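TICKET: design request
STATUS: open
ATTACHED STRUCTURE:
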């Protein structure tokens, strides 16, 4: 399956009321395919909701008829109605996002750099907030390297249900936390080799086409960097804030500053910074500052953002992640669980 085959299939879709197809009209603006998923962007030249709905339905049907296609995502764009202003721009000049019904707060967990334990913090923070009595969801937006399914001990594909007459994915749940991840949709070690538009569309669907129900908090585990996934999230849903995860050393902090600046540029408030792997306690009780001492706290002071707390290096945290039993859920009275609980309490206080 390639872009030429998809474009050829779309020639079967006629513009309503005309004998010409949407391809010959030049309405098909972007086609991307990979891993059994196809994303198509169609741009109409006039505001015609009825035509848009018909084209979307027929285009998705034409794509699904192709061999090896498992998912078809078609977005039909229209100009605003004549005489009406274009939609207002949101954060950083991006299109303004709409609040998702039922979700009270959406919080992005970011790092800018890989390898600092961001997903581990996301998983345990979600469980810690749930232990505080909140209704929590966790969305794994690391499309290329999803790790939430492993860390939360969940496998298998999510079910599809009809909610208010609309088909939606039903998020799996474990430890009282609702989950969604690209990892649930992949087979084994299958890699994701996608272009930017497909990543954007997938994140949009994970937000709007999943039956999250009523949530106090939806935590979004972002991939490292400041690219498509981060911008797509800002376009899709209004974020209540971002949480930054770092380790104490300058090699991490230097990249974390880019993540902080990204949130500033898209007008997302920084809720605070977590210093992960802050130290290791030796058998004699001394603390070994393997990655340096106090770098996260000092950076929070320099950036004038809240410092949410430190999480030391514990073997139990790593073992819990590998076994699918987050340490907060496995042993709430342990040292590492209490460290995450303090961070969750600080975050909850920040959100009010």
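STATUS: resolved
RESOLUTION: sequence designed for all positions
ATTACHED SEQUENCE:
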């Amino acid at each position: 399956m390639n872009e030429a085959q998809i474009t050829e299939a779309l020639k079967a879709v006629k513009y309503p009321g005309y004998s010409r197809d949407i391809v010959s009209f030049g309405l098909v603006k972007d086609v991307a395919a990979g891993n059994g998923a196809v994303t198509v962007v169609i741009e109409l030249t006039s505001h015609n909701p009825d035509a848009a709905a018909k084209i979307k339905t027929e285009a998705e049907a034409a794509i699904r008829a192709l061999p090896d296609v498992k998912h078809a995502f078609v977005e039909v764009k229209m100009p605003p109605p004549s005489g009406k202003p274009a939609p207002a721009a949101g954060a950083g000049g991006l299109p303004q996002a709409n609040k998702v019904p039922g979700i009270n707060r959406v919080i992005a967990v970011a790092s800018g750099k890989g390898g600092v334990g961001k997903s581990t913090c996301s998983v345990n923070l979600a469980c810690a907030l749930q232990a505080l009595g909140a209704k929590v969801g966790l969305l794994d937006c690391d499309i290329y390297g999803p790790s939430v399914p492993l860390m939360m001990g969940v496998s298998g594909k999510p079910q599809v249900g009809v909610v208010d007459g609309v088909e939606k994915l039903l998020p799996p749940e474990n430890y009282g936390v609702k989950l969604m991840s690209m990892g649930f949709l992949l087979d084994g070690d299958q890699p994701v080799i996608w272009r930017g538009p497909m990543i954007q569309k997938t994140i949009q669907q994970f937000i709007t086409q999943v039956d999250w129900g009523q949530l106090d908090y939806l935590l979004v585990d972002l991939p490292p960097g400041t690219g498509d996934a981060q911008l797509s999230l800002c376009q899709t849903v209004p974020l209540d804030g971002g949480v930054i995860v770092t380790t104490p050393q300058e090699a991490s902090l230097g990249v974390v500053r880019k993540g902080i600046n990204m949130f500033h540029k898209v007008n997302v408030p920084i809720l605070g910074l977590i210093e992960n792997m802050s130290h290791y306690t030796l058998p004699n009780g001394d603390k070994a500052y393997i990655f340096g001492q106090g770098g996260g706290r000092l950076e929070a002071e320099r950036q004038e953002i809240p410092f949410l707390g430190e999480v030391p290096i514990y073997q139990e945290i790593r073992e819990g992640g590998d076994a699918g039993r987050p340490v907060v859920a496995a042993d709430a009275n342990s040292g590492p669980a209490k460290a995450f609980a303090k961070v969750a309490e600080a975050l909850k206080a920040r959100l009010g």
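CLOSING REMARK: The longest strand covers residues 103-110. The longest helix spans residues 335-351.
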